[in-house]
Amino acid sequence: MSDKWDPDGVDLAKALVARAKANGRAGGARRRSRVGRRSSTGVNASSGTGWSGPGHDDRDPQSLAAAVEKLANEHGWEEDLSVHGVIARWDELVGPDVAAHVTPERYEDTVLTVRADSTAWATQVRLLAQELVRRLNTAVGHGTVTRVEVQGPQGRSWTKGRRSVPGRGPRDTYG
User: Fold this and answer.
1) Residue 5 — very low, low, confident or very high, per pLDDT cuts 50/70/90?
2) Which residues cross the membrane (predicted)?
């Protein structure tokens, strides 16, 4: 370009068009060589830049259910989510009478721990434990629950209240 100022910008425009044509010739050859070199991840194999085509792609919008399912599969949460789903539907699976007196507390290593509000209900659920395992495995998947551990009501705590005493407490009361 010349050192003179061009009020119409003709020289500048000509220079830009010439540069674009030169880049276009080189880019056109490069573009033709990239066709068909898309990797399975949708990333251009030669340059590493992503580009999308008319087919399905991981970057396409997805439903919330599909995104949550993919997240659970990636982290191995399927079993935990299904067990927590069963706990949410506890009264449907065991019936309203049992659900009123027995609540699930935790699930670890295929063992479901439940707590009964009385020793009578704890004994009743212990007798029905195999039926409960069968129902839970039907709802969640075979082998997910292998055993139901039943705990009775919690014992009284002597550490709080008006009549608590400092020190060892009422140890001699129980023989």
Assistant:
1) low
2) none
